[in-house]
Amino acid sequence: MNPKPTRRDALDNRERILATAREAIAASSGASNGVSSGVSLTAIAKQAGVGIGTLYRHFPTREALILELYRHDIQHLIDRAPVLLADHPPLVALRRWFDEVAHYGRLKYGVAEVIHAATDGGADDEYFAPFVAAIDVLLKAGAADGSLKSGIDPEDVLLQLSVLWRLDPARGGEARAGRILDLIVDGLRATP
Amino acid sequence: MNPKPTRRDALDNRERILATAREAIAASSGASNGVSSGVSLTAIAKQAGVGIGTLYRHFPTREALILELYRHDIQHLIDRAPVLLADHPPLVALRRWFDEVAHYGRLKYGVAEVIHAATDGGADDEYFAPFVAAIDVLLKAGAADGSLKSGIDPEDVLLQLSVLWRLDPARGGEARAGRILDLIVDGLRATP
DNA sequence: CAACGTACCGGAGGGCCCTCCGCTTAGCAA
DNA sequence: TTGCTAAGCGGAGGGCCCTCCGGTACGTTG
User: In the predicted model, is pLDDT for residue B7 greater than 80?
Assistant: First the structure.
């Protein structure tokens, strides 16, 4: 899909675009609700000293770019799932993980953007499959010890989580996120 | 907010825009996932024989236009809540209502669009407050007979519902919607 | 080192969104 | 009927998105 360009100039450009995008987003992220719309790809291209066509060749969609920026952070979140599971019972681990994802997503809004893109259905599975897998691990653990329903589709849960990114942190979003996560977890609980 | 224009020409234009928009959306709604993006406001204005400025004066955002188109249908949904409550126990009424909203929303995608806009936070409360009120009635009834938790914020629930509009009906969306609604309802249930 | 093919560049172009402001005209008042 | 005035009109303009394709230069091969 994105088999890393082989030519030097191409690679340079790619890196330059990523660096510029990182700056631009960091600069603009102080304001507003954190939805991606704020940054102009045109501006990034110009600032990076490449043509707009070049930017689009490297990153065919805005999401592809954001996604690449936050690949690291996303991986971190994914890796947290088994760690939490090792330290806590499944139900607690699940809830903690949700909290981390929600919190992280609102902080570094890029992660939210990625998940948003992923849940839009059009995104490359390659990227968000690990995310789904992380959820699945948590769900399976909960099912195994009887605290969660069994047979839940992890993608359904990811979709439910995607609501979080639409909260406005400025106005009660923090508290609302907590309440909604509670509701979601309750929905996943095994019914005795 | 939108105190209906008093001049004849203004009113005519308004109606013409609405009629044209209705056609345009009907014509394009056959395809794709049903997200609003498909229709160009520029095209609607041209087709309606008004300047783009006129369209924007009457309907400051795309959502405002869509919302006006489906005001009727939305009202219908809202009215269904008490009817269902009269005929069924609260839990059943709630679930039925969810089903109707979900189904309707995916059929006439405008409703989805409106709710989507409403949950975006920026929307005029005036419009979606009745929706929230309808949910609240259902929740209160369930709380009263002990089948649902008490003290749930209806806006939280609306937000959870908003996930439904992002499902792709073409690929498993129908079934997925059902599963997710089950999860949501379970989350709202009173914990014994 | 020269020459070449192709991977990559860049920006013009078409389309949409939304704003802003000078002009038009409907409806009222005399 | 004839002004008059503000409510309403409309489109030019600036910005962004994304595509497409003629040109450039990288790296390889002889």
Answer: yes
